[in-house]
Amino acid sequence: MFGLTNKSTQPKQNKKKRSRRSKGPALYNEQQNLGAAKVENSKVSTTRKPLRRTKRKSTKLSNGVAKQANHLASNMRETMIKVTKMRRAERRSRETVAIAKTTPAMTLKRLVRPEQVGDFMSRLNRSLNFDLGIDLGTANILIFAKGKGLVLDEPAYIARDDKTGDILALGEAARSMVGRTPKGISVIRPVQAGVIADYDMTEFMLKYFIRSVVPASRLMKTRIIVCVPSGITPVEKRAILEALLRTGAKKTVLIEEPLAAAMGTGLNDAEHVGAMVVDVGGGTTDIAVLCDTGVVVSESLRIGGDSFNESIIRYIRRKKRLVIGPLTAEKIKISVGTVDRRAKERTIEVRGRDSSSGLPKMVAVNSLEIQRALEAQVMNVLEGVKSILEKTPPELVAAINDHGIILTGGGALIDGLDRVITRSIGIAAYLVESPRYAVIKGVAKALDEMSQLRDTLDELQ
């Protein structure tokens, strides 16, 4: 068995060795061939590297040349476009000259009429301008913007620090601080009795309110109409105009309050009308006789809603031994205030400070007491109306008797004023609708004729 196995296994081992030996030269040849191929490849790679570098350089040069060519081509195109435009413009100008030589003058007028150019320019100016109407009252300031309506209605109050001069509040916020400010802070009204009392504060207030309603881009194109009392002096008018000009206004026009009130009630729509207007404002009462939208005779009294409040404060302190402030007096005037002794009696409870002890105190005040407190003020208004009628021509007095006496202004809202004037003067007096806004309505109508109105500053000069 061992012999058989040796015989059987020996040839197999020899075969394996033979196969290895037989494969040895082939493997060697293959390795030699691979080595030669590597050497050849290395030679080829070393010879191709310079070619690749030169090719890249040539590519960069070609790109630079292409960019220069494109740049020159674009410059040539731009030059040709400019030359073409110039030639077209020259050709059009020559054609226009030729048409002008051959076309009659009437035909040219039909092509473009001068009035069309004027209408276009006027429409353009109107679109660029920003027209405002201002009722600069003692108690309130109202601003009307053309095309927008009433854009501002604020009390004419300013709260400031007395030490630093800083403005703390304006308008309603400042009015609510009346009588409630600590030491060192004061609430003022820069306009008193229809005229400027504090120039710097008036200028600041106008700038603040105007810039709050006018876009900054159109501020220099603003044209303003402002109402003033009928009896103010040229110096007082100039002060108002200069304050408006400092806000950046382009044009300023002053209009008397009675005339604006008449326009607001529609009196200017009728021809040859004679009427009397009594405008009771916060600081003044303007009485005027109008004819053909012009003021024939007028007078301004330093009587208004503020003087009514002061009379109420003095009366309650004297009769009731109670100290109250302006806001409380205004509340009393609105609630139970009357100037007619025949009015129905009404009562209100008022809180204040006892003038003797300084302690809080509450008293009852009725409408008849308020009538007695305001009686002297109303008598002054009646005397002013009689004085104006005495200066009025007889023909206009007859017209006033037919049309009656027109009452406007916020102060005219007090109960019984129309009845007292009717009984005392003998001419019917009536309160217009929304008397507080009659003046600003008239200013709104005046804005439609703004282009025809002359700058008031030029008239003063």
Automatic annotation (TrEMBL):
Residues 13-23, 49-59 have a biased composition (Basic residues). Pfam families: MreB_Mbl (PF06723). Residues 1-61 are annotated as: Disordered. The keyword Cytoplasm applies. It comes from the Bacteria. One of its GO terms (molecular function) is ATP binding. InterPro entries: ATPase_NBD (IPR043129), MreB (IPR004753), MreB_MamK-like (IPR056546). Keywords: ATP-binding, Cell shape, Cytoplasm, Nucleotide-binding. Residues 1-12 have a biased composition (Polar residues). Transmembrane segments: none annotated. ATP binds at residues 138-140, 282-284, 330-333, 410-413. It is found in: Cytoplasm. Forms membrane-associated dynamic filaments that are essential for cell shape determination. Acts by regulating cell wall synthesis and cell elongation, and thus cell shape. A feedback loop between cell geometry and MreB localization may maintain elongated cell shape by targeting cell wall growth to regions of negative cell wall curvature. Belongs to the FtsA/MreB family. This is Cell shape-determining protein MreB. It comes from Veillonella parvula.
